[in-house]
Amino acid sequence: MFEKILIANRGEIALRIHRACKEMGIQTVAVHSTADADAMHVRLADESVCIGPPSPAESYLNIPAIISAATIAGADAIHPGVGFLAENADFAEMVAEHGFTFIGPSADHMRMMGDKITAKRTVVDLNIPVVPGSDGDVQDEDEALRIAKEIGYPVLIKASAGGGGRGMKVSRGPDDLGENLRLCRAEAKASFGDDTVYIEKYLAAPRHIEVQVMGDSHGNVVHFGERDCSLQRRHQKVLEEAPSPALNAAVRKQIGETVTTALQTMGYRGAGTIEFLYENGEFYFIEMNTRLQVEHSVSEMISGVDLVREQILVADGAPLAFTQSDIVLAGHAIECRINAEHPETFAPSPGRVTDYHAPGGLGVRIDSALYAGYVVPPYYDSLVSKLIVHGANRNECLLRLRRALDEYVIDGVETTLPLHRRLMLEQDFINGEYDIHWLEAYLGLND
Ligand code: ADP
């Protein structure tokens, strides 16, 4: 087993990984930018190394600096966390070339799924249903018009290298298709350095449902049920729950089996998530994330399995200690993403946290790197805390979450806590009746 793991990330996820390591008796090495010298992940880690100035390109994305830090600290393995280098196959290869274990899937699988066109082609061959659309990249306007006519408007133009909800354009008719194609291509080139785009049917009112999996290097793959991540703003998740209020046990079993069979065929190792849109009883694959996800915690709460611990064990070559039938999903869990942002305008709100009080009690979990006096830096993602609540059923979970949100105090910076408090009182949310467009419509109505 590894004796020392370098955590190549920051914020709550760095802390999350640190906690799993400590429970396994593994030493941790934090890396940090100069802006994060006082961050909680640096304070709690056994050792820390400054890897550069605040800009992510010069610190958390600075591969030579991270590899040097691992060498100096004598780490055995590197956990990339979520975001930054977590889906960078070149990084995974470089980590291995320098004699460290990359805690994640093989670089080949990361490449295969990192490119959305290749990912779609791969899963079609594995009998996973996909959103109808172009078979690969779309070259010009004529081709786009032909495909859109075939699948019917509205259509969505998507960047093959896209991520983080960026690089997507909707066209409701042929008039703006050419213009949107050009815009999407230019945006893709600027954001991802790759202007390859493809077209899919834009689904009217789907839910975003994703299945959490874990595979080992001995051919075993299990799933931990699904998460419903339909509450989104700008294609980014705001709140997630497990199980989905829209699925029953039979559908859950069927989609879980489809996914695990496919990943077993691929020989997938590590944690992964297959994302679907779900509409009128049908699943449509949109992408696979070859890493841990921010919302992994709701699956942990209903399964009782520490997914980071399992990632570390399978990266070390151990077989999974359980089979599918050992995984029992119990109760209901909801996660609120709390961002340092204005709750109505969503403008970032960095600055000093003057007062901090976290809720507690049965079934309440906080994954956060905040503390009173901490200064939220302006350079990074605005997620500062995840409040995750578990209950015996969805109703108990909602009542507990409402109570926990009321207790939570974060002063000095604006946060999205007031938005979550409001959501808890919305009848559609209480009924579990919402699709991926619900939140934006709700926010529009309440402007
Ligand atoms: P990213 O990698 O940027 O997260 P995804 O492909 O996972 O992109 O899509 C993010 C979100 O965009 C989805 O959860 C959904 O809300 C929306 N979306 C993606 N594809 C479609 C589609 N074909 N129809 C409608 N909405 C879509």
Describe this protein with a few key phrases:
447 residues, alpha+beta, Rossmann fold, Dna Ligase, domain 1, D-amino Acid Aminotransferase, Chain A, domain 1, 8-stranded antiparallel beta sheet, 5-stranded parallel beta sheet, 15 helices, 20 strands, globular, binds adenosine-5'-diphosphate
Outline the structure in words.
This protein has about 450 residues and is of the alpha+beta class. It folds into three domains: about 100 residues, Rossmann fold (3-Layer(aba) Sandwich), CATH 3.40.50; about 70 residues, 2-Layer Sandwich (Dna Ligase, domain 1); about 240 residues, 2-Layer Sandwich (D-amino Acid Aminotransferase, Chain A, domain 1), CATH 3.30.470.20. The chain has 15 helices and 20 strands. The strands form five sheets. Strands 13-12-9-10-11-14-19-17 form an eight-stranded antiparallel sheet. Strands 3-2-1-4-5 form a five-stranded parallel sheet. Helix 1 links the parallel strand 1 and strand 2. The longest helix is centred in the middle third of the chain and has 18 residues. The N and C termini lie far apart (about 55 Å). Bound molecules: adenosine-5'-diphosphate.
Q: Please name the CATH topology of the largest domain.
A: D-amino Acid Aminotransferase, Chain A, domain 1
Number of helices: 15
Give the overall shape, derived from the CA principal axes: globular
Name of the CATH superfamily of the largest domain: ATP-grasp fold, B domain
Strand content: 25-35%
The Cα radius of gyration reads 21 Å
